Amino acid sequence: MKYSGFKVIKEALTGHKGWKPVWRKPEPKPAYDIVIIGGGGHGLATAHYLAKKYKQKNIAVLEKGWIGGGNVGRNTTIVRSNYGLHGNEGFYELSMQLWERLEQDLNYNAMVSQRGVLNLIHSDPQRDAFVRRANTMIMNGADAVLLDAKGVREHSPLLNFDNGRFPITGGLLQPRGGTVRHDAVAWGYARSADSAGVDIIENCEATGFDIQAGTVMGVQTSRGPIKAGKVAVAVAGNSSRVMAMAGRRLPIESHVLQAFVSEGLKPLLPGVITFGAGHFYVSQSDKGGLVFGGDIDGYNSYAQRGNLPVVEDVCEGGMAIMPMIGKARMLRMWGGIMDMSMDGSPIIDRTDISGLYFNGGWCYGGFKATPASGLAFAHLLATDTPHDTATAFTLDRFERGLMIDEKGQGAQPNLH
Ligand SMILES: Cc1cc2nc3c(=O)[nH]c(=O)nc-3n(C[C@H](O)[C@H](O)[C@H](O)COP(=O)(O)OP(=O)(O)OC[C@H]3O[C@@H](n4cnc5c(N)ncnc54)[C@H](O)[C@@H]3O)c2cc1C
Predict the structure, then answer these.
(1) Which of 56, 341, 343, 360 is most buried by its number of CB atoms within 10 A?
(2) What CATH number corresponds to the domain at position 385?
(3) Whose CA is nearest to atom 13 of ligand 1?
(4) Is any atom of ligand 1 closer than 6 Å to the C-beta of 344?
(5) Which ligand 1 atom sits closest to the C-alpha of 67?
(6) Domain end residue (candidates: 341, 367, 391)
């Protein structure tokens, strides 16, 4: 079904009886050319690009729960391409460009809103670091604007400029950054992949791999065995668990990250704002709620729920830059499982098992990567060569000392 303004008006006038389900509910077939494990943003985007761009056929996406139930529907919706290392920045800028034409590409309203992302500066060394980052961004085709304190005040007058514990001395603004309605991204990619013939199979958990003589032949699932020419793993926070079923250990730890939404308020923030002297970021949804988050919980977990010390830490960060947030009531909070890699950068690569491919290590920034990750993973699956923008995202870079250590924090997941 094609969506259009005309269709919306017609349905509104005829009682909304003509809408059709957005994707089918197929039974799993005994065999596919490509099986993607994980129906999150990355798995679905991979299926979309495989079918639409690389013209691959006979593809299934296996999702153990429901579409949109993982991190793709749990994140704080921020998209940006403001990375400091060339290994990352070109890839994230490609993702930004794909976001910019996503709705036309999918014929789906994903509420792409380029309202800007502002990183606050509180010290001179931080300004130097942001100037360097801005240069990398511009060299990779992204946009970056350095603001002084007056510029930040004009951009976001309701921040605390007068008696902050960490005075705001400037900011790095990416005007093209912003937010995208997270679950609409999952639904849009699912709809597009389905329309191209991809079987999206929900409530189907991969429970093991069929590996013979170093080659993957298929997967065992909660709905029976499925043969596959290639198997692509894109399970985000469950990466270590799923790859352990293939006998492989990853340079990844799983941690919980929480998100929070306040009651609806009048327009208060022009875009996304991040605190530079602590871990806090905030934007305002179209419904008026402040959507915010901060650091990961400090222990490994596969539970999609968080703990109270981080709630306190996040709220302190909020109070430091906008004390009026203390008067807003918190409406909702939830957690998701993050696949934190040991250098803070992702992995899109083949594995040493022939036919088994891996996509993961997205840390708490994988939503913004969704389109480029899907495109690059589809490219790898279809051509067996890495996409130009993803050549640095190798699995063996930790053994070879080729880390993409964006923040120079090394193997400290809580600092990425
Ligand atoms: C609170 C929070 C805030 C965040 N904020 C941002 C942000 O503002 N910006 C940003 O860029 N990123 C953000 N992220 C990170 C981002 O959401 C993730 O990096 C990204 O969504 C991960 O990729 P995905 O969408 O494919 O993951 P998921 O949606 O988690 O998809 C993985 C899927 O695999 C399925 N699965 C797992 N095991 C199996 C199995 N054995 N068989 C079948 N299926 C399986 C899961 O059920 C899941 O649906 C945030 C994350 C959280 C939790």
Answers:
(1) 360
(2) 3.50.50.60
(3) 365
(4) no
(5) 49
(6) 341
**Cβ atoms of 95 and 369 closer than 8 Å:** yes
Residue 368 Cα: closest atom of ligand 1:
11
Domain count, the chain: 2
pTM: 0.97
Q: Is the CB of 182 under 6 A from ligand 1?
A: no
pLDDT in tens, the chain (416 residues): 889 999 999 999 999 999 999 999 999 999 999 999 999 999 999 999 999 999 999 999 999 999 999 999 999 999 999 999 999 999 999 999 999 999 999 999 999 999 999 999 999 999 999 999 999 999 999 999 999 999 999 999 999 999 899 999 999 999 999 999 999 999 999 999 999 999 999 999 999 999 999 999 999 999 999 999 999 999 999 999 999 999 999 999 999 999 999 999 999 999 999 999 999 999 999 999 999 999 999 899 999 999 999 999 999 999 999 999 999 999 999 999 999 999 999 999 999 999 999 999 999 999 999 999 999 999 999 999 999 999 999 999 999 999 999 988 888 888 88
284 alpha carbon – ligand 1 mean position (Å): 21
Closest to 219 measured CA to CA, from 4, 38, 408: 38
Helix (H, G, I), strand (E, B) or coil at 253: strand
Atom from ligand 1 closest to the CA of residue 256: 53
| Residue 19 sits in the same domain as residue 156 | no
Q: Which residue has the CA at smallest separation from atom 48 of ligand 1?
A: 70
Ligand 1 lined by 43 (C-beta under 6 Å): yes
Atom of ligand 1 at shortest range from CA of 206: 42
What is the whole-number distance in angstroms between the Cα of residue 236 and the centre of ligand 1? 5
- Which of 37, 121, 123, 41 minimizes the C-alpha distance to 79? 41
Q: Work out whether strand 226-233 and strand 356-360 pair parallel, antiparallel, or are unpaired.
A: parallel
| Beta-carbon contacts of residue 70 (< 8 Å; ≥ 6 apart) | 38, 39, 40, 236, 237, 336
Question: How far, in Å, CA of 76 to CA of 182, rounded?
Answer: 8
356 shares a domain with 243: yes
Closest C-alpha residue for ligand 1 atom 2: 75
58, part of any domain: yes
Residue where a domain terminates, one of 291, 315, 341: 341
Rounded distance between C-alpha atoms, residue 11 and residue 14, angstroms:
5
Q: Does the residue 83 lie in any domain?
A: no
State the distance from the centre of ligand 1 to the C-alpha of 412, rounded, in angstroms: 20
The response to whether residue 278 sits with its C-beta less than 6 Å from ligand 1 reads no
